[in-house]
Amino acid sequence: MSDAAGADGDRRLRVDLDVDQLADGGCPIAAESDEATEVAVSAVGDDCVVDVTTPDGDVRRGTGEVDEDCLCHAFSRVGCAPHFRRVEAGTILVTAYVDDRSAVRDLVEELREVVDRVRLVRLAVVEGPDATEQVTFDLSELTPKQRRGLELAVVRGYFDDDRDVRLSDLADELGISKSALSQRLRTAQAKLVTDVFDDAEE
Fold first, then answer.
1. 169 vs 165, which has greater pLDDT?
2. Residue 58: strand pairing partners
């Protein structure tokens, strides 16, 4: 990530992701508790120490070994820092700030190499030195099918100006018709745009 983006307060993106770890993964975050309201991670050298706060206020400490398959390393490989928010039913909600949509794609691809499943939950445009959110897309309001279709389109670069992926390619990957995917994307986009303008009027 460039220093200029942070120093000048240029437009950046906040991305919220749900991450399910591999069953044989060594990360202690979700291993300590299926539910956590706070997560603190300290990785120094080859050792990782995690403190998770359960909903009843207990703090549990876990340890792990740092290696290339660590969740934190996936974020560092694309130049961003993970902010672990909570754990729900074994799924970790993590936030990161990136410079553009290509970094979102890179991050999701890196995570897919080391975790069982990653889902894009929310994407927000943040601007200025105080990182005020200007426009927010809350994907949690979409149906699972709409969210999956929109997530795949974003990750594969379908909405980019210089896109080299076709709608039919995405439909094939999802195992549905091109028209069905087109309808899902239109419905999802309409829902997101409506939510943005509704929020702006409040």
1. 169
2. none
